[in-house]
Amino acid sequence: MQLLVSTILSAQSTDETVNRVTPVLFARFPTAEALASASPDEIEAIVHPTGFFRQKTKSIQQASRTIVEQFGGQVPGTMEELLQLRGVARKTANVVLGSWFDQNEGVVVDTHVGRLAHRLGLTWRSKNEKDAVKIERDLMEVVPRDEWTYLSHALIWHGRKVCSARKPNCAGCVLNAECPSAFKINGQPPVPAAD
Q1: Which of 99, 129, 162 is the last residue of a domain?
Q2: Of 182, 101, 22, which is closest to residue 191 (Cα–Cα)?
Q3: Is 189 inside a domain boundary?
Q4: What are 27-54's pLDDT values in tens digits?
Q5: Fewer CB within 10 Å, N- or C-terminus of the chain?
């Protein structure tokens, strides 16, 4: 339940903020039952720093109610069931299925993965294409299924630490020799080849 709620809270928020908020939230409301029956005002006060706190509170509470009423208080383990929960789309379902249930049902496409899919040439769509489902389909076609969850984690990490949106560290990137976008973003000069 904690992974599901944390992923819902992560939308338009930083990991740092979510990691600061969730211990307080789960200490106060440790189960789906507790979240489902909680006062919305109390949840809102806790999750407020993550942004869109009213909408996130509604999603968390309705998802929790559905989990209690339809799934016996346990987070469901299929894509079809997860997509029945308010606030859960493919990205969140892929996080839960891949990280908790060890099921490769798809690729998590967040802003980092979407950006790197374009930069690395893993999608043939326009760089302005932001539709995560389309990008996910492209990635699923070029990457073996048993690597989908790993790919998601690796690209997210790489996007945060190396290939950032505004200042990618092409010189420090282990993929720069293979990357079609290396040294072409923000006018970075190419690094001379080693002899």
Answers
A1: 99
A2: 182
A3: no
A4: 999 999 999 999 999 999 999 999 999 9
A5: C
